[in-house]
Design goal:
The chain has one domain. The chain contains five helices and two strands. The protein has helices spanning 3-31, 70-89, 96-104, 116-125, 133-137, and strands at residues 35-36, 42-43. The protein starts with a helix and ends in a 25-residue tail after the last helix. The model has no long low-confidence stretch (mean pLDDT 88).
């Protein structure tokens, strides 16, 4: 991959990570806020059942998760944030499809189209996305733990020669 495309991808990853950090702060603050019911009753924060759709202003990064409860959405945002920052902290070359796959985790697993953040990252990195998102994530979520180097491009396997 061209050095310029890697640099563009790194800048975009850094900007996305900064956006995710600000989003996490907003999610945290909302999760600790009481809710007022339509009848005027105050519901304690623990029982408020906030969703991503309750965030104001809405986050374009989480457009596909509007009906998800805030707690699992926060975990998903943290998983993506950790992976992006871990990859950025390395000097490794990064597989742009890995980066796109990680960003895809912020969206609806059943979407038919790529979210704008994923399409933009692929464009910046010069990566060709599969026909639909399911072909990129194969129905699998992100692993529980981030493994060092998981962002590196895979190397072709060499066949044993006689």
């Amino acid at each position: 991959m061209a050095a310029e495309q890697q640099a563009n991808m790194r800048r975009a990853m850094l900007a996305t990570s900064a956006s995710l950090a600000r989003l996490l702060e907003r999610m945290h603050n909302l999760s600790h806020r009481a809710r007022e019911s339509p009848s005027g009753i105050i519901i304690r924060a623990e029982d408020a059942n906030w969703t991503v759709g309750d965030l104001e202003p809405k986050s374009p990064l989480l457009a596909g998760l509007q009906n998800i409860k805030l707690s699992p959405a926060t975990s998903r945002v943290l998983q993506v944030h950790v992976r992006l920052l871990s990859a950025l902290a390395s000097d490794d070359e990064m597989d742009p499809l890995w980066v796109c796959r990680v960003l895809l985790a912020l969206g609806d697993d059943y979407a038919h189209d790529y979210p704008p953040a994923v399409a933009r990252m692929a464009e910046l990195a010069g990566a060709k996305l599969p026909a639909n998102p399911r072909d990129l994530h194969h129905g699998l979520g992100l692993r529980e733990f981030t493994f060092p180097g998981e962002w590196r491009p895979s190397t072709p396997k060499k066949l044993n020669s006689p």
